[in-house]
Write a structure and sequence with these properties.
Largest interface: A-B, 43 and 43 residues
Largest sheet of chain A: 6 strands, mixed
CATH topology of the largest domain in chain A: Nucleotidyltransferase, domain 5
Strand content of chain A: 15-25%
Radius of gyration of chain A: 20 Å
Structural class of chain A: alpha/beta
Oligomer: homodimer
Distance between the termini of chain A: 15 Å
Number of domains of chain A: 2
Shape of chain A: globular
Mean pLDDT of chain A: 94
Low-confidence stretches of chain A: none
CATH architecture of the largest domain in chain A: 2-Layer Sandwich
Chain lengths: 298, 298
């Protein structure tokens, strides 16, 4: 069978992988060419620079996911409404070049009369389910905007976005707390981090809990070097506070880079919740699985 | 009796008032000379520029409150621990010039093993109690850092800080939401504001609720002009979510400028909570009342 070019094209960077038989990774590349760096009309050239040599005539088929399918991307792939599984994704691809290049749509869901969206994370969740051999579960994808995703029967039922990474950066760089925090984050102080998690859970409100980074410093209760870890614990603790973790029947699955999933493991330890971590290989696996659906479709 | 120079010297500005018999306002002044604009050693000159003409020999006595008593201010007035009333404040003044110029200390309290602090707001709460003829209640002082203060028996028992105004500014100016929001806030859209309040209450988490400003715009559910009001409602709603408003036996008291207290009235309407608003005259009244304590003390 044909090779697959799996492409994760996000806001600030892109990653591409050439996958062979059974989805085996042949080669992997990354470029700092997120969609925000690409001028209108510039997508074909960047795509070509990233993997033109893989697109031999009659050769690989390219499947893309992430913000490349947004209104600011190469071609808008309208959101699929939840619940959605492989079939819905495969049926709603946006074709950049028929039979050659396609973009996986993101998903939308609605809660309390307000919509929510993901682009790229749906593919990672499907990939993680394939890798772990499960068809349901609760998944967290930490990041600038963390996503919490619930799946049953190999379909995504619902999800919610938490602006955790972005709030940390805002507080870190632009708030009054920035005056007290050291210039660099330094290494994670696990104890200060978990204390921050606990404070967020007890306080129940980030608007209040974040102020602790100021007062603990004011009263010399925490050294300046430990404040970034404390604040990171506070925002991640706040994210965890709203998840229904008591009802879990299987381990929570965290998908992302080890540096990030490690923090979530530490935070979830405070709550006594078990977590399995999966790395970025989930994206390749998810794109591979969607591509197999296409092959099955006449 | 002597005149009183009442002085509210905060981070970004200062206000001064000359008070006569019974605390009657004779004259009021404001300068954009908050403590952050004053170089070390520069406080006497700025004080003199603001009200030197009021400090006639044998004339007025000056009582100051606010961040001027912080470590970055004129003279540090160490925090008084809660509970605290007029007596504690009067006994713990920091004297810049004996008998002539004194600074009211701020208060500290502790919850969940984390300290909290106020400077200036304690004086406003005492002033509001004097103005309204009450000795207890729940008080909200909206601002960059909103304070929620509980008092009984003419003493402040406890309080909590919420970084509401600062979070709004961070999201407004530096977050991904800034891309969708119009350049200027425009007039408050009461309906969009109250919808934001409701969303924060239902969502239960600012990290999630704030994202609604992006998705409502993405799906054309809210015009761009209404997004600042929506976002303001979300952060103020998040602040209200954590207050124990069901147990109120008397109206909540909001202290601040009409532009701010008006938003809290609108937000509290969503919860069916009555509120009485008091303006900046509370500060003058509070300083006057502390000064009377001094007169009583031999």
């Amino acid at each position: 069978m044909r090779e697959l070019i799996a492409f994760d094209w996000g806001t600030s960077s892109l990653r591409a992988a050439l996958l062979g038989a059974q989805g085996r990774l042949i080669e992997e590349r990354a470029l700092p060419r997120g969609i925000l760096t690409v001028a209108p009309g510039g997508f074909p050239a960047v795509f070509d620079a990233a993997c033109g040599d893989w697109m031999r005539p009659g050769g690989a088929f390219a499947l893309l996911c992430g913000m490349v399918g947004s209104r600011q991307g190469w071609l808008e792939a309208p959101y699929c409404t939840c619940p959605a599984g492989f079939d819905e994704l495969a049926a709603r691809l946006a074709w950049v070049e028929p039979g050659r290049i396609a973009i996986v749509p993101g998903l939308s869901c609605e809660r309390h009369g307000v919509p929510d969206v993901i682009r790229g994370e749906e593919t990672q969740v499907f990939g993680a389910m394939e890798l772990l051999g499960i068809g349901e579960g609760l998944f967290v994808l930490p990041g600038t905007h963390s996503k919490w995703v619930r799946a049953t029967g190999q379909r995504i039922d619902t999800f919610a976005t938490f602006m955790t990474g972005e709030f940390y950066a805002l507080l870190r760089q632009h708030s009054i707390l920035a005056r007290t925090l050291p210039a660099a984050d330094g290494e994670l102080d696990a104890q200060a981090f978990q204390r921050g998690v606990r404070h967020a859970l007890e306080s129940g409100n980030l608007l209040h809990a974040a102020f602790s980074a100021r007062t603990l410093s004011l009263f010399d209760r925490l050294p300046a070097a430990a404040l970034p870890s404390h604040l990171s614990g506070v925002v991640i603790g706040e994210e965890l506070r709203s998840q229904d973790l008591g009802a879990l029947t299987a381990p929570l699955v965290a998908i992302g880079s080890p540096a990030l999933t490690r923090r979530y493991e530490l935070a979830l330890q405070v709550l006594g919740v078990r977590v399995r971590s999966v790395g970025s290989e989930a994206t390749w696996r998810g794109l591979w699985a969607v591509a197999q659906k296409l092959k099955d479709t006449p």
